[in-house]
Design goal:
Keywords: Membrane, Transmembrane, Transmembrane helix. The protein is about 70% helix and about 0% strand. It is built from seven helices and no strands. α2 (about 25-50) runs antiparallel to α3.
């Protein structure tokens, strides 16, 4: 094994054994793109539900025109894009930092849990500016991200056993009744042919 963790990671990446670990630059780039995309999607849906740009006008004034339109765009499109991007980059940054500090050579659920907690704190603090809401958001997002990292994107913990249950190795040529079913048919003869 080479001397430093970074050399080991580069060597494993060259062999194709990166185990999903990426450098921070790549993670931040993808988190930024995903955050901007999610923010624009959220802003677009927001436009569909609140199409009137005068809803954001100041008290006792109604101002139409390009300045109000740009302010409306800022409120409905730019703010969510920035919020989602900041949350994504926070998650990527904390997870990369913890990978570097711990020197972990594989993805670790604790890294995702703490990164999710940091991202949840930013998310709750950005939208509400209240510590109690931000701390509970941090707890919830951290737990969810840790569970997703443990189980992967699916909710099945043992996919091989699940597949074996769905598709048995062999099928009997004739259906064999269980002992319980035979006893029930003997007890209730009117249902014998069902």
């Amino acid at each position: 094994m080479p001397g430093s963790f970074w050399e080991y990671r580069q060597e494993q990446e060259a062999l194709g054994n990166s185990n999903g670990l990426k450098p921070f630059g790549a993670k931040a780039y993808y988190a930024t793109l995903q955050g901007v995309g999610a923010g624009i999607a959220y802003g677009t849906f927001h436009w569909a539900y609140y199409p009137d740009k005068l809803a954001f006008s100041h008290k006792n004034t109604v101002a139409a025109g390009p300045s109000r339109g740009m302010e409306y765009l800022t409120h409905t499109l730019l703010r969510p894009a920035v919020a989602f991007t900041v949350v994504g980059v926070t998650y990527a940054g904390v997870e990369s930092f913890l990978e570097e500090v711990k020197g972990s050579h594989q993805k670790d659920p604790w890294n995702s849990t703490f990164a999710g907690a940091a991202a949840g704190m930013v998310l709750g603090g950005f939208f509400t500016r209240r510590f109690d809401v931000a701390s509970m958001t941090a707890l919830g997002v951290g737990l969810v991200m840790g569970m997703v990292e443990v189980n992967g994107p699916n909710i099945v913990c043992d996919p091989i056993a699940q597949e074996a249950k769905k598709f048995p190795d062999s099928f009997s040529a004739k259906f064999k009744e269980s002992d319980d079913l035979s006893d029930l048919k003997a007890k209730y003869p009117s249902y014998k042919n069902n």
